[in-house]
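input
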Amino acid sequence: MKTTSTSARRAIGALLTGAVSLGMLTVGVGTGTAQAAEQVCTGTSSIYGVLDDGRLTYTAITPGNGNRVRTRIGPDLGFTPVAMATLNFNTILVTSTTGALYRVDVQTNDETLAVSAIKKIVDTGWTHDKLTYDGYGHLYGTTTNGTLLQYSVSQAKPAGSQHIGERAEIGTGFVLKTLTSTGQDRLLATTEAGKLHSYKIIGGSWKRDDLKESGWSGFDQVVSSGSGYYYGRIAKTGAMYWYKDANISDGKGDDIAYNNDDPVDASGWTQTLLSAAPGQVTCKSVSTLGEDIAKDAKAEVGNNFNDYDFNHSRAWCAEFVKYVWAGNHVTGASALDARAISLREYGLRHDTYRTGSPKVGDAVLYDTDNNLTDGEANHVNIVVAVSADGKQIETVGGNESRQVQKTGWFNWANASSPVGAGPALAFISPKG
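output
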């Protein structure tokens, strides 16, 4: 593949017209609206692939403009691949026609694409036709009969089935043309009819949102590198297109920005499989990370999370904060755990810990013994509004009367927490 300049890519409008006539793309109809807030995106969309002769490929794309900046072709895998999922920047899982599961360790993909090891870690049983990894410990696979399965991945470089366990059947009816992950327990898929679906996996259940009713039938591969960046490849032409979803959690497709007049490449993408490294791109609203967190927290009010796989089903206030922060790609959110005091540890580690001056999006810690230095806290929730004088706050918290609840205004300096867990002692801001 050769890098295509912006001017050259815009000159291929005639090709796109033909694609539309074949029902492969939707251009100019339902193309989405501009993002409501300016965003700053960092990182590189890293996409691995396999050519029809079995050789591994790597491609780097700048997410903000869709420019391909590097492509490398590496060694032959030595077996016929069926499905692949990228765990991290240098670890790929690939299944074979015999049902074996291989781990491919990438040594470098800079000047050359070199592999340090191709290791069979499971001999049989991996008959998935599609695989994808969410970057947060869950590997998803579908079978040809439409069953969606979830596995927990406990190691960055799993050595065998002991590191890819807790197999759970999520549901049936997942007869999909493409499958990728867009974030923590979030999937994006297309159908043969051209529909674009998003899925939120909640414990052992799932929720589907229909983003587009048509227009995506031409893509044989769709992958995501995180933060709402989607890449779709058309096998017939080898073209790769890029899209930006302003909000992956709103269940709507009208905010997907199409760039069909400015594709990544008009041709050259001949891989039989593609897989993007998860979480390699992060986008933050210029000054609205806290507002985004508050919006998502308030959207969960009333949810009891009974079907979600929190580690502590009766003490999940901290895990709710982690859930909302991780959904907004907060730096270091993965290090939070079920202990409310883990938010204090986060704040001290990232220098965002304060005993006053609350901000929207902050986590607020409460403790009945007025002491957070003893290694415990009684409760934590999220600040969703702050009065002009900074004395009054509104909060949303998990596991408040066994559900997510929103409080009215209260003076944080002299009032106990809304659930009787003691006074508000500290505020921890998320790091963008």
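quick obs: Residues 191 and 261 are 24 Å apart (CA to CA).
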